[in-house]
Design a protein that fits this description.
It is a single chain. This protein is α+β, with helices and mostly antiparallel strands. It has one domain (8-63). It is built from 3 helices and 2 strands. The protein has helices at residues 8-16, 31-40, 51-57, and strands at 23-28, 45-50. Strands 1-2 form a two-stranded parallel sheet. Strand 1, helix 2 (31-40) and strand 2 (45-50) form a beta-alpha-beta unit. The radius of gyration is 12 Å and the shape is globular. The chain starts with 7 loop residues before the first helix and ends in a 7-residue tail after the last helix.
């Protein structure tokens, strides 16, 4: 699920507001900020997906 947010702090609060927290991903253009945010998210596994990674998903994106 994707949710809108304005700040990294707000994004972390949204991500941590769940009962499950098994895994998640951070999609970004700013890898250093994404790594900081990923450390604050309470989940079993977090993937950081960069814009360059997104091009490989573009052909299947509507079905993800």
């Amino acid at each position: 699920m994707a949710l809108p947010f304005r700040t990294a702090k707000e994004a972390v609060a949204l991500a941590n507001n769940t009962r499950y927290g098994l895994a998640g991903s951070v999609w970004t253009e700013n890898v250093s900020l994404a790594l900081e945010v990923a450390l604050l998210i309470k989940a079993g596994a977090i993937w950081v997906i960069t814009i360059s990674d997104c091009h490989s998903f573009s052909s299947i994106m509507p079905y993800m």
